[in-house]
Design a protein that fits this description.
mainly beta; five-stranded antiparallel sheet
């Protein structure tokens, strides 16, 4: 899946990706960036979606494009 990082909280180490298919934004944590990328709002990333226990989605295996 591909999406754009729409929000990033540098001091807190997480943000939100907006999928290309206009699905709901998903949470992404800095530990989920596999290529050591420094997250920047507006950049496009490729990722896998996984549901969490509360039914929301989070991005995993996030890599820069």
């Amino acid at each position: 899946m591909k999406g754009v990082l729409v929000t990033w909280f540098h001091g807190r180490g997480f943000g939100f990706l907006q999928p290309e298919d206009d699905g709901p934004d998903c949470l992404v944590h800095e530990r989920n960036f596999i290529d050591g990328a420094i997250p920047h709002e507006g950049e496009t990333y490729q990722f896998d979606l996984r549901p969490n226990r509360k039914g929301f989605y989070r991005a995993e295996h996030v890599r820069s494009l």
